[in-house]
Amino acid sequence: MSLNYKGQNLFIENTSIKSIVRKNNTPFYLYSYKKIKDNFENFYNYFKKVSPLVCFSVKSNSNVSILTELRKLGSGADVVSEGELLKALRAKINPKKIVFSGVGKTDSELRLAIKKRVLLINVESESEALLINKISKKMNRVTSIGIRLNPNVDANTLSKISTGKLDSKFGLLSKNFLRFCKSSKNLKNIKINAISVHIGSQITSIAPYKRTLNAIRKIIKLSKTNFDYVDLGGGFGIQYKNKDKKIDIKNYSNLVQKFQKETNCKIIFEPGRYIVGNTGSLVSRIVFIKKNGKKYFIILDAGMNDFMRPALYNAKHEIVSVSKSKKRIAGNIEFVGPICESTDTFLKYKNFSFLKEGEYVAITNVGAYGSTLSSNYNTRPLASEIIIKKGKIKVIRKRQKISEII
Hints:
Elements: E1 3-6, E2 9-12, E3 15-16, H1 17-21, E4 28-32, H2 33-46, E5 53-57, H3 64-72, E6 76-79, H4 82-90, E7 98-100, H5 107-116, E8 120-123, H6 126-138, E9 143-148, H7 174-183, E10 190-196, H8 207-223, E11 229-231, H9 249-263, E12 266-269, H10 273-276, E13 280-292, E14 295-300, H11 309-313, E15 319-321, E16 328-336, E17 345-353, E18 360-363, E19 384-389, E20 392-397, H12 402-405
Helix pairs in contact: 5-6, 8-9
């Protein structure tokens, strides 16, 4: 988490959040540049012996300013839509550091990716490969593709974010993968340069990754294809609470190092949450406090439209006071939003630091899949986004005006 208390006041890096809320309307997303930089560099250093290409997962956080900062640190991009590709290009990420993933790419998306000569289009069906070959032929191009393997590996994570099992919509099963490798020799306008996998998200054990590496070894041997790249995807979990299990990246890096020596392929990673998840908070004002029976409802000005993860995944994100009190609220407390849905609820506590209406709280570890999942539900404007870099406060997305929605 990028937040810390100095006395009774909450800070991000060395900047008081109180000083930020004085000049910015809530709710707003608040990021620490230092934490983003540290996370990216630490991740790369774990794997530096294999010199990987790190392609940040844009779906986790697509703010162009954040993408630009990551590009300066050496990052590429993993994109899953035309919009994400255009954002990556706006951030001046080299197309040769961009991989285009996704199970249902449209004609226009493929044409753009082919035109921009991205490093890889990771195909997820034989039909997609045939379409890429057809478009490339019309454009007089030979397009570099990866084939996404469905390794039939259970990532032991939430079912809604598990993507590598037999019943998943993603990738090709080994039988279809091998058949395609054989038949693709007749397709003159595509070149298979990579094998790609991604087995899920918020993974906290290296055991599924180990099984995936074994599945890739086997498929490479059977396919008799010389792949330039192996795209190992992402999915690395983070600690949302201090007691959460922490993934052993160092141990996994040793397995990847051994794998790379055996296969002699360049390695690509697609981390998202691991880079930005714990760098962001959602700062919100307490609109009302009411007591129904034995429960206190703390009603915030941030709703599920601003932050969808608790409603969508039943995700638990710790909430902290911007001004900590020595007094406590005893009893059942539930932090909720203003949306007309019972699922617009964030977290329950048995007791909490004393709060008053008009004060502020921060929902923590929302840097990944926070702003990118937000919506205009209930015709509510999108929240602003702010980054702290070297003590300077910079608005990197202005709060949307209601008139823009209307």
